[in-house]
């Protein structure tokens, strides 16, 4: 099926007016690879049948929580690629989590097959570029919560070749694999760091060339995972803030940024306002976090991982994907080069994917 949507790229002046940005910002954005490292919209399809194929407005809570993304709005926003996430329910038994993951993998792949005129499931940078040459959005897939596969770690090998690009070791709860950064379950569990099972899990992800995503993991477990991780493979942290701008349990220290950069990896800045600043976060605050990554470890390691539809509250001036060109305007206002902007929008991510998978 062909998805009905407005092609704003054919109307750059109107697009610029709609967002109150310059035509220069629109043209730079529209000519770039624009890839969001973390889109959680599929969770709402699973929970209450949110139809990703249909254009929605904001949900019951306005810009908060959900209905920030769907397939038509991704196209209208000029999102050329993204990592669409299968999230794990940690409160179900391990076998149920495993079986649910494989069902959901088939289900989300079917959504891309149904919308193949506009979307294509891709596994490598080469496949992404082929999708773009055909005018399609390149859709990567990821797992939020490695406990989707902790019933039997051999299940990592059951994933069809390359179907999953990356996987967070943990999510918001401490599991058999290791400790979350979330302070409440960490205090309740009495567990610390990465478990032996978690170390084995990291090695299995390496063997399968699935990116080890160190979002959500505790700082102790972060360094332990990095130590066991295959040093020849780049690490990712797909959706996070940075403590150098705002100290928060969810955000990375400069030392953690350096660990990721030393592998050639990239760090995606997320849009949850309470992780960006104590109060008053805006699109400019997102750019502050990107700037800190660039200043600390270099512009080759900064990306965007919004976490839209991940039950987040984005800043009020970027409530949905459509407002992403505002970030470009703010970057240009700071005097950043076109090359830096293109790297952050998608170039760094593609370089990292190509490094691991081609």
Write structural notes for this entry.
It is a single chain. The protein is of the alpha/beta class and 358 residues long. It is built from 14 helices and nine strands. It has helices at residues 12-19, 23-30, 42-48, 71-76, 94-114, 125-133, 183-189, 196-207, 219-228, 254-262, 273-276, 283-297, 325-333, 338-357; strands spanning 35-39, 81-87, 119-121, 137-144, 166-168, 211-213, 236-240, 266-269, 302-304. Strands 1, 2, 3, 4, 5 and 6 form a six-stranded parallel beta sheet that branches. It has a three-stranded parallel beta sheet with strand order 7-8-9. Helix 6 links the parallel strand 3 and strand 4. Helix 1 crosses helix 2 (23-30).
